[in-house]
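Q: Predict the bound structure with T4K.
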Amino acid sequence: MKTNLSDLAIFGGTPAFENTLHVGSPNIGDRKLLMKRINDLLDRKWLTNDGLFVQEFEHRICKLLGVKHCIATCNGTIALEIAIRAAGLTGEVIIPSFTFIATAHSLQWQEITPVFCDSSKEQLTIDVSKIEALITPRTTGIIGVHLWGRPCNIDVLKDIAEKHKLKLLFDASHAFSCTYKGKMIGNFGLAEVFSFHATKFINSFEGGAVVTNNDEFAEKIRLMRNFGFADYDDVIYIGTNGKMNEISAAMGITSLESLDNFVSVNKANYQKYKKELMNIPGIKLLQYNNKDKANYQFIVVLVEEEMFQLSRDDLYHILKTENIFARRYFYPGCHKMEPYRSYFPHAGLLLPQTEKLLEQVLCLPTGTAIHEKNILKICKIIRYIANNASFIREKLSIPKL
Ligand code: T4K
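A: Predicted complex:
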């Protein structure tokens, strides 16, 4: 884009951050209850190390998901790292490249090679038909990612893992309170991992959790979260400091109490976007399967340049001039970021669908901070851009398609 984009401000947004509509604005539950809990923990003078709020948070998650064990952590990345180490993964582990960089880094951090698999065109999650070709004698596991809250093909992943004697874990960072064939996410594979980062619809400022139905595995994770201490003076594993603190747990519990409200706001936002974006050529809103429960925490559109007449990146930049800060998750792709792009410079050749998604996906603002009028504005601008695409191309000196 050569022309100054500000020339193109269509509805003339103001640049102040507080007026920006952005992806990831946190949901805040009942403030009064949160403050009460913070006062309680201060009075108790128990701030971290498996405190009462952490235990309550874990208990509530077990109950909600119908899972035996929940071990809350300081964030989702550490939860992944602990689960990977406790599962004994080594050598190579197969993951989709189309995921947040934390999935790959949590392996590489432990000198395990992430082997990138392509994603499916329909589901956007790991393409199960391409996994077996990536298995080598060094492969020890697969990590499926339930992207945007839509579960990956769990049944097929389970079959492949069993057939090749691989450990199966899930990065369920986006899929809290979602279901797969009627069963809550959290109950699949050896373990599943959640993120409760501020930008997730259920948040504990920073936070995460490993959930599992395997007693032995749960016990190992619990110890590894606390340096590997089995008793006051006895360490039996290499552990880390992965503990969730009490103030985070207080926020987590408060957040959980508003879960139904957050999901219904997200769903209403999704439906509003669906209605307002309907019939815009080249804009495809990600669909959810009605049979499963979704949390609708991301509004994901795919921009098809040939039909929209502008690229996803053009749309992203133009929206920015209107103070709408959409996100190009997970551009440019794990395999195109360091150290992976140096290790596997030609990885993209095996990831044709991923490469396409990386050029097409755009996440739009949602959550409790986004109101109907905001969605109407965003969609009105997108429709205007679509209706005036050739004029905009010309004005921005974008070569003809
Ligand atoms: N696996 C998957 C599949 C994941 O998506 C993630 C995290 C993980 C694993 C690892 O879990 P954690 O270790 O993070 O628990 C954000 C989040 O930081 C990250 O948690 C999330 N996925 C990822 C998809 O999004 P960035 O780099 O986009 O963050 P940032 O700082 O640009 O914030 C995003 C937007 O949110 C901005 O527009 C501003 C807004 N925001 C952010 C914060 C922190 C707020 O309005 N208020 C806030 O307090 O990664």
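A: The longest strand covers residues 139-145.
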